[in-house]
Amino acid sequence: MFISKINHHSAGSRFVIAGLALLAWVSASAAQAAGGPAPSSFADLAEKLLPSVVNISTTQTIKGQAGGGLEMPQFPPGSPLEEFFKEFLERQQGGPGRPDAPSRKATSLGSGFIVDATGYIVTNNHVIADADEISVKLHDDTVFAATLVGRDPKVDLAVLKIDPGKKILAAVPFGNSDEARVGDWVLAIGNPFGFGGTVTAGIVSARARDINAGPYDDFLQTDAAINRGNSGGPMFNIKGEVIGINSAIISPSGGSIGIGFAIPASLATPVLDDLRKFGKVRRGWLGIRIQSLDVDMAENVGLPDQHGALVAKVDPAGPGVKAGLKDGDVVLKFDGKDITEMRRLPRYVAGTPIGKKVEVVIWRDGKKQTLMAAVGEMPEDPADQAVKGGKTDQPKAKEGKDGVLSIPGTGLTVSSLTPALRERFGVDDETKGIVVTEVKPDSGAAEKGLRPGDLIIEADHKPVRAPADLGKAVEEGRKSGAKSLLLRVENPQQLRYVALPLSEGKKK
Asked: Residue span of the signal peptide, if any (predicted)?
């Protein structure tokens, strides 16, 4: 099973991402879930909305493809036939990447909809990404060349512009997706497999889905019949308002199994407004890197539950430091909104008007505090706000060197930052802390994702400059009855907090 953006239907392309449409049949059980009998017909609504939905086609030049221009057949992910055909095509060309490999034109199809009668059209970014030419076909088969106004890969949206001349375009309004309830009827019109003007219907299956597609995931889920070519198509409510933009599916093979996702209008509209006005998105920014709380972390800082976002690092030049935010704070509320999950905070901050002063409720030193922060503008290429952890296999390090300390009951062996270790792990001369040289695979440290090369720079919010500092912190934690010790850990990929279990063996 995999999650895929519902890309365009591709003709002559080596890659295809499935498209999104809504359920093509209306069952009695769905009618009951929607809270009432099925409408006798969607015909009047479809007739009204059809002229607002467009087909989008793109052309892209692909250079240097192996196989003399032959196509790679589409296989399920992991199929042994995929590797077989890849090798066959490379032999036909004489090997991949040859300078004399021919270029070719690849065309693809997607969906979009008109949001302004002057010619503004919304679609997914992945529909038009890397396109050399973009064309828009209206419901009456009139075709226009389109220009790209702006695009946002993070939310997967793009705005196009056509010059309709004397042509009268039918624009559709956005609705309030926050009011959409699970079980509400929805309607979609799109371009599956190039069949323009296809109308399908279903319900909202769930809300606020995070499918790891981007930093601001908040998808509406629908019982969708997913088909290629519906990317960028609108999801309408029963009033004929756009409440979502169809974007992704879950499918074992790329075809429909009835689980699809749409970008909610509440997330899309501010992005689209910025793209139209500025050609880019101006997002709010606090200048903090955050991570989620686990049970051990929450207990360590005295929180009664795991709600909130743990501040892993505050940018010294960002708005957060001016507001008084510090490393180790837990953000509980932002501008009156509860941070029930870590991932909520980046979206709330990004959607806040630049320059607005907001209240930020934090947890620090065992109690709540309220700070005032003036939201700044996110830099063009900021570091990701969410700090992702993870587990890896733990290679063993050599033992017996000077400055090495094994801390019983933790699974950790640590060392001072000697010149040899700095060179081995790529640590510059200015960095302070101690380095992890070994992690026992059956330990709590391994379960928390610690690995050789990680730098421990703080323990219980106190600087760690020598292995003995960590040993002392562990001893004090155990004497106080603490179940874990909060470490601040850094490596070239991330900076995060880790609640190191102080009991023997791996946690169950």
From this structure: 1-33
Instruction: Read off the pLDDT of residues 143-164 as tens digits, 9 standing for 90 and up.
Output: 999 999 999 988 899 999 999 9
Distance (Å, rounded) from C-alpha 498 to C-alpha 275?
Answer: 39
Whole-number average pLDDT of the chain: 79
Residue 78 lies in a domain: no
Residues 3 and 125 placed together within one structural domain of the fold: yes
Q: What was the pLDDT predicted at 16?
A: 36
Torsional sign, CA 216, 220, 225, 229: negative
Convert the pLDDT of each residue in 322-361 to its tens digit.
999 999 899 999 999 999 888 889 889 988 888 999 999 9
CA angle 241, 245, 247 (to 5 degrees): 160
- Whether 222 and 316 share a structural domain: no
The winner for highest mean pLDDT among 113-122, 147-156, 482-491 is 113-122
Q: CA-CA distance, 95 to 113, in Å (whole number)? A: 43
Q: How far are the Cα atoms of 90, 106, 196 from residue 12, in angstroms, in the given order?
A: 18, 5, 19
Residue 404 main-chain phi, psi, to 5 deg: -90, 135
User: How far is 391 from 448, CA to CA, in rounded Å?
Assistant: 7
**Distance from C-alpha of 127 to C-alpha of 159, rounded to nearest angstrom:** 11
Residue where a domain stops, chosen among 242, 274, 306: 274
pLDDT at 59: 85
The annotation status of 229 as a binding-site residue, yes or no, is yes
Tokens in use for 426?
């790529």
pTM listed for this prediction: 0.61
Cα–Cα distance measured from residue 389 to residue 296, given in angstroms and rounded to the nearest whole number:
15
8 is in an annotated binding site: no
State which amino acid sits at residue 185.
W
Structure tokens at 86: 């890849």
CA dist 219 and 325 (Å) reads: 30
CA distances from 388 to 5, 36, 334 (A): 22, 43, 21
Catalytic residues: 126, 156, 231
231 is in an annotated binding site: yes
CA distance 407 to 470: 8
- The full 3-state SS of 79-118, as one line of letters, equals CHHHHHHHHHHHHHHCCCCCCCCCCEEEEEEEEEEEEECC
